[in-house]
Design brief:
Strand content: 5-15%
CATH superfamily of the largest domain: P-loop containing nucleotide triphosphate hydrolases
CATH topology of the largest domain: Rossmann fold
CATH class of the largest domain: Alpha Beta
CATH architecture of the largest domain: 3-Layer(aba) Sandwich
Number of helices: 21
Structural class: alpha/beta
Length: 446
């Protein structure tokens, strides 16, 4: 059932931040299935408690969807590390899964996101070479790299590849990996708890390599931009390596400070375009080899010809084909691939924030104007919160983008989604309502 669990993890990965996925979900393993009971392995007691409290509903929902039937999740302490779960000491239980035991590691890197696993084509050749040169310290002409691309084209892969390469070469290098959202939240937390000097110390003087993802999130955050500007000045002056990723150029991001935009643009700017057909073929072949999936050549070419949006879509198609073939004991052929591709393409075209808003308004009998209004009436605020939750679950949009489309701030969006997640865990009316909307969205019945 390994292919089933891989498909479940792939879907979960789309619905939560990468660093959270790597810490809490990637470390889980499929141990057994006993009727309706699915047994997953956790590395320690601390991880089991955290996953149970925060991600159990999401995991259970995705497994139910993949196996197409009821299931009950049981989390057990995995014995893969020492052969006896009873040997875990209290100290070991407090170690977060997949977090390297390095003083300098501010986050984790995806173990499969390496330069060797990156498929190079005309669409990304320059970005690949620039990233590799910076990681290797070759060509000394740049210590700053800005990787630009739309969602799902590989900018995070290159960012993680740089971090993986540097740490594999020298574990003493202090690498800080953080998203712009987490940088902002960290600064706010430091200000509220009178620890801003420690925050400054961490990024200005205890960092040799800064990998900062999703720069577009800084739009309109003046205080964060000011702090980041001072941080970059310190790192630039010290000759440190800086890597940024974004879906927009710095000067195209709304409400971006001009001086900060100039700093971000001062190094090499490389873009990644959508992969061409030949590159898509090699991506499918590479992904299949990594997942040990034997896939006929004609199916490879079919997936490459039909799934043209991004790399995540290609991987979703491959995982879907492998999972369905395994679950139903069917041969992997073009007919099977067609059934998977049809659903992927339909969902990518139809599930938008606008369509989610229309669907929610239709069934709650409210207008779009009311949904986007400042009203706090429960009859309007709860549909709005559910709409935000569905937008986060079924689209690739950031919290910031979702908030903007619902006429709300980022913090309000976070609160709304958290509220719905809590209500779902309570298994009350909201859970049933969310399941209703999920079935409509996944069936294309909008």
């Amino acid at each position: 059932m390994e292919s089933v669990w891989n498909q479940v993890k792939s879907e979960i990965h789309k619905k939560m931040p990468h660093h959270s996925f790597m810490v809490w979900i990637e470390s889980l393993e499929w141990l057994d299935r006993r009727g309706e009971e699915v047994v997953l392995g956790c590395p320690n007691i601390f991880a089991r408690k955290w996953v149970t409290n925060h991600y159990m509903d999401l995991i259970e929902a995705e497994i139910k969807r993949v196996v197409q039937g009821p299931c009950q999740i049981t989390l057990e302490i995995s014995d893969r590390d020492n052969g006896d779960s009873s040997d875990h000491t209290d100290i070991e239980q407090l170690v977060l899964p997949h977090v390297a035991r390095r003083r300098h590691a501010a986050s984790v890197f995806h173990k499969d996101f390496t330069f060797d696993q990156f498929v190079v084509g005309m669409c990304n050749d320059y970005a690949y070479k620039a990233a590799l040169a910076l990681a290797c310290g070759e060509g000394g002409f740049h210590n700053s790299l800005y990787i630009l691309s739309k969602t799902g084209l590989g900018k995070s892969h290159l960012s993680h590849a740089i971090g993986n390469h540097i740490l594999n070469e020298d574990t003493a290098v202090r690498v800080c990996y953080v998203t712009a959202e987490d940088f902002t939240n960290g600064m706010v937390h430091a200000l509220r708890h009178d620890s801003i000097e420690q925050f400054k110390e961490k990024y200005r003087r205890q960092c040799d390599v800064l990998l900062l993802e999703d720069i577009q999130f800084l739009s309109g955050k003046e205080k964060t931009q000011d702090e980041l500007g001072f941080t970059l000045d310190a790192l630039f002056s010290a000759g440190k390596k800086l890597i940024f990723t974004s879906s927009h150029l710095p000067d195209e991001i709304p409400k971006m400070d001009g001086k900060l935009a100039s700093r971000l643009s001062s190094g090499v700017i490389s873009s990644i375009e959508s992969p061409d057909y030949e590159t898509r073929v090699r991506i499918v072949e590479k992904k299949a080899a990594c997942k040990s999936v034997q896939i006929p050549e004609n199916v490879v070419h079919y997936l490459a010809s039909e799934l043209t949006d991004n790399i995540r879509q290609l991987e979703s198609g491959l995982v879907g084909v492998a999972a369905k073939a395994s679950l139903l004991d069917l041969p992997i052929d073009v007919k099977l691939a067609e059934s998977i591709v049809k659903n992927i393409v339909r969902r990518s075209r139809e599930i938008t924030i606008e369509n989610i808003q229309k669907l929610v308004c239709k069934y709650y009998k409210i207008s779009i104007k009311e949904l986007l209004s400042r009203s706090r009436k429960r009859s309007i605020s709860q549909p709005r919160q559910i709409g935000m939750y569905l937008a986060r679950r079924y689209t690739d949009q950031t919290f910031q983008a979702i908030g903007r489309d619902f006429n709300r701030y980022h913090a309000t969006t976070l609160h709304a989604i958290g509220t719905v997640e809590r209500l779902i865990r309570e298994q009350g009316p909201v859970q049933k309502q969310v399941e209703f909307f999920s079935r409509r969205l996944e069936s294309g019945n909008l």
